[in-house]
Design goal:
The chain is mainly alpha-helical. It is 75% helix and 3% strand. The chain has a three-stranded antiparallel sheet with strand order 1-2-3. Keywords: Membrane, Transmembrane, Transmembrane helix.
């Protein structure tokens, strides 16, 4: 059949057309596969990032639910605050100022001195203030004050959580203002002052002892009647928030608590979807670890900004130091969890990257393997040479063991530890001596080394 036969030409044309169509279809499938792979990779990366942020949000939510939104845990968290020097100094300074305000010490001193002695009013008032401050510091550092502090914080927290629906003897709301009443603390200080410095009031003062933590109702009226004065409306009260920030924070925390289960479940679901959707699980692990670090750092930055904003609203000096110490103590658990997440994310990303096929991981694994083989070889040689080396340096080894034992004995305080140390030293000396004798035992026709005779 001639190659120019019309039938042959048509057949060749048909075959070429089919081949072109097959190639085009193959190219289309390849492009679709590449596009789908790219979409899956991007989707996996996005899901991994969302899972990382959801995990950090879950950790914050769990911490908030277990600490900030739980009165008993909150009380246990802030109970040690009076033991912090900065907090104790802030409480003492505030209480001293309030006590001086209610006692009107300067006017009393001025009235007690003749007019010609007015120049000593300032020094006398300063001495009285120092005495009151020392008494306040002793009260703040006592165990009886801790019980009162715990009860005040318990009541404060209970009412703070219910700030949108009620008031109490400790926390009250006025529009967008939330104030904390520290009158129980001032009452206890005045009670202790009356016992330690009875002349400071000019008469006998009878106030309830709140050392047990029980706060009676109508305490403000009781203090006014005992002191014979009318207390200002803001006496022993300070504003926690005056711009609705506390309400917004409580609403956010309450929302986080209600959505906590959904957040935790969403974290697991997002992570599973990321591994299912993405074509490479190792890459997803790397992305998840990196985004976990980013999320932890982002939350840390938000917390620092919140802390800076809160501290900026407090006057500089002892009060700001006290607030800073309080925030540090309260958020300690959250900071520790953030550090764990940061380290876990870094280790996860690094580990997943190092087991991958990249040139750097491959070279690193090869270098580690080669180093391990060299170390094993060197260790084997050292084991073989150790007995002979011990024989050659026996005296130095013995003296070194004694020196180490003496230094350790100076650091130990219990007789049991010293006894264990003595037994260990004896075992060490006997062991190296036995090893040296066994290794250095003379062969036929050889003399025994002088240092092992």
């Amino acid at each position: 059949m001639s190659t120019t036969d019309p039938a042959t030409v048509r057949e060749l044309h048909r075959l070429r057309t089919e081949l072109s169509q097959a190639r085009a279809e193959l190219d289309t499938r390849e492009r679709r596969r590449e596009t789908l792979g790219a979409v899956r990779r991007w989707a996996g990366a996005v899901l991994a990032a969302l899972a990382a942020f959801a995990l950090v949000a879950s950790v914050v939510g769990v911490w908030a639910a277990r600490t900030v939104l739980d009165t008993e845990r909150w009380t246990a968290t802030v109970a040690p605050l009076p033991g912090d020097p900065a907090v104790a100094a802030a409480v003492a300074e505030y209480t001293t100022t309030q006590v001086f305000a209610v006692l009107d010490v300067e006017e009393r001193v001025r009235a007690a001195l003749p007019e010609a002695a007015g120049f000593v009013v300032g020094p006398v008032v300063g001495q009285v203030r120092d005495g009151v401050r020392r008494t306040v510091e002793n009260v703040v550092g006592s165990d009886r004050f801790r019980a009162l502090w715990t009860e005040v914080n318990r009541r404060t927290h209970q009412r703070a959580l219910a700030v949108l629906r009620g008031t109490s003897a400790v926390v009250r709301t006025d529009g967008d203002r939330v104030t904390v009443d520290l009158l129980p603390v001032v009452n206890q200080v005045i009670h202790e002052l009356g016992a330690r410095l009875p002349t400071v009031f000019g008469r006998q003062i009878t106030l309830p002892d709140l050392g047990s933590g029980a706060i009676p109702p109508n305490l403000r009226t009781t203090v006014e009647e005992a002191l014979g004065v009318s207390l200002p409306a803001d006496f022993a009260r300070f504003t926690v928030d005056d711009g609705g920030r506390l309400r917004a924070a409580q609403r956010a925390l309450d929302t986080a608590r209600r959505a906590l289960v959904a957040t935790v479940s969403g974290t697991l679901l997002l992570l599973v979807l990321a591994f299912v959707v993405a074509p490479g699980r190792r890459r997803v692990t790397v992305h998840f670890g990196l985004w976990l670090c980013v999320a932890a750092v982002a939350v840390t930055a938000v917390l620092r900004a919140w802390r800076a904003d809160l501290e900026a609203r407090v006057p500089e000096g002892v009060y700001r130091d006290g607030v800073s110490a309080t925030i540090s103590l309260v958020t300690q658990g959250l900071r520790e969890r953030g550090e764990i997440l940061l380290r876990a994310g870094a280790l996860l990303a690094l580990g997943a990257y190092l087991i991958g096929p990249g040139r750097l991981p491959v070279r690193l694994r090869a270098a580690i393997a080669a180093g391990g083989r060299r170390a094993a070889k060197a260790g084997t040689q050292a084991v073989h040479k150790a007995p002979q080396w011990t024989v050659e340096h026996l005296d130095a080894i013995r003296v070194g063991g004694v020196v180490v034992a003496v230094v350790a004995a100076l650091l130990l305080a219990s007789w049991t530890a010293l006894l264990v140390l003595a037994v260990a030293l004896a075992a060490f000396e006997l062991g190296v001596t036995a090893l040296a004798r066994r290794t250095g035992s003379p062969r036929a026709g050889e003399a025994t080394p002088a240092h092992v005779r």
